[in-house]
Amino acid sequence: MVETSRAHRRIPQTEIKGQRWKLSTGALLLPASARVRPTMPLYIHFHGAPWLAEWSVQQRNRKAAVLTVHLGAGSGVYSRAFSDPTKFGLLLDEAARQLSPEHPPRFHPVIFTSFSAGYGAVREILKTQANWDLIDAIVLMDSMHTGYTSGSQPGPLETDNLQPFVDFAKAAVAGKKSFIVTHSEIFPGTFASTTETSDYVLSQLNLKRKPVVKWGPVGMQQTSEVRAGRFLLMGFAGNSAPDHIDHFHGLEHWLRYVK
């Protein structure tokens, strides 16, 4: 489906200068504007063009390292990559040793950003409670799905796959984490939409949407909002492919809400 009634502005492709390393999973960037310190911020992005994630982080924090993980189509490839409960901790250690073999830095804060299928990695990482102390914030950009209990036909949601997100949202409401969620109005049909999954999370938090009408980044039009503690959920108009891509190009904007 093609939609042309909104602007759908796109960030021009830009290469961030700095040192780069290929890791066992993903690629690490130390921007030229940053230096290795005993404690330093790390942004980890799942799914989508690495340059856009790197550029977006640079607009918000020029002193941070950026780890991008782009593995291909479908959430399954991301889920499998992090199905080992020890994988995430080992990846952090690997990144720290690349930056400084003799004096590996401690990463803090650690901020996840995920677009579309990248949620598969975030979900698997959150299933291991020991990882929670290592994660300070999560930004999901039209990036929270699950299946239907009836298979590929719309019906009740497979809620087990959503429980890690519900738990993290509760921590954000309590002010212990930051959790930013954006969603479109796209309904895939064969699996649950980000609207349906967002509604389920809100039901578990006993929170309700507030209708709003205002502009978002890159020409997006926001229609709803929920704020509680350090949890923020924003709904946007649009059910086409360009509307979906808008969420990723808005990453620099979403990072402004991370506390």
Give a nutshell description of this structure.
Helix content is about 30%, strand content about 25%. The chain has about 260 residues and is of the alpha/beta class.
Element layout with pairings:
Elements: E1 18-22, E2 27-31, E3 39-46, H1 50-60, E4 65-69, H2 75-81, H3 87-99, E5 106-115, H4 119-126, E6 137-141, H5 163-173, E7 178-183, H6 194-205, E8 210-215, E9 221-228, E10 231-236, H7 241-249, H8 251-254
Parallel strand pairs: 3-4, 3-5, 5-6, 6-7, 7-10
Antiparallel strand pairs: 1-2, 2-4, 8-9, 9-10
Helix pairs in contact: 2-4, 5-6
Characterization of this structure:
The protein has 259 residues and is α/β, with parallel strands linked by helices. It has a single domain (18-257), classed as 3-Layer(aba) Sandwich (Rossmann fold), CATH 3.40.50. It contains eight helices and ten strands. It has helices at residues 50-60, 75-81, 87-99, 119-126, 163-173, 194-205, 241-249, 251-254; strands at residues 18-22, 27-31, 39-46, 65-69, 106-115, 137-141, 178-183, 210-215, 221-228, 231-236. The protein has a ten-stranded mixed sheet with strand order 1-2-4-3-5-6-7-10-9-8, with helices on both faces. The model has no long low-confidence stretch (mean pLDDT 96).
